[in-house]
Amino acid sequence: MTKGIHKVHSFMLIALLLIVTVLAGCNSAKTQQTQSSSDNQTTTTPLTPSSPSTSEPESSATQAETVKLTLYFPNADGSALVPAQRTVEVSNQEIIKAMFKELSSPPSGLEPPLPKGTILRSAVVKDGVATLSLSSQFRTNFGGGSDAELMTIYSIVDSITNLPGVQSVQFLLEGQKQDAILGSLDTSVPLKSNPSLIRK
After folding, report:
1. What interhelical angle do 146-160 and 95-103 show, nearest 10?
2. Is residue 35 situated within a structural domain?
3. pLDDT in tens, 31-84
4. Which contiguous run of DSSP H or E holds residue 44?
5. Does the keyword Signal apply (predicted)?
6. Whole-model pTM?
7. Half-sphere exposure of 140 (CA within 13 A, CB side)
8. Rounded Cα distance, 97 and 69, in Å
């Protein structure tokens, strides 16, 4: 009788140990599966919108635009302005900046209207007035003379007033308005084009 009880107890103990072992193994496998699933989620994260492969194309505002310009250059003896056609590519609507660059390179037989070293600091068009801020070299490197002054000023004015929406030009020197930026011609107010100086 006692031996029978011992056998039952031994059997129950072995069965209990087996159950505990099986349960422990299941929990371990479940833990590993959860961790593996978590690792897979980390490595398959989709690209963010800022990734180079999904970036937006450049805005059309930065693309170059071809523009035809009519510029006016002083003739050899400084008595008149002569029209010249140029085709340029500009971006961000920097047409006036492109015009100043072209005015520095006159056609053969014509003179550059800008004093050497002149830099266009800024150009703003508002209410039909193009306000230009020029560097100090515009005045300090100007050779002098009333005829040369007319040619220099109106080469710029007549060229820029050819642009749509521009009726006059206000000159500034390093951002400051001048009564006579080159000596005698009144530049305290915006200047309109002077067709009488143009040789047809």
Report:
1. 140
2. no
3. 444 444 444 443 333 322 333 333 344 444 467 889 999 999 999 999 999 999
4. none
5. yes
6. 0.68
7. 9
8. 12
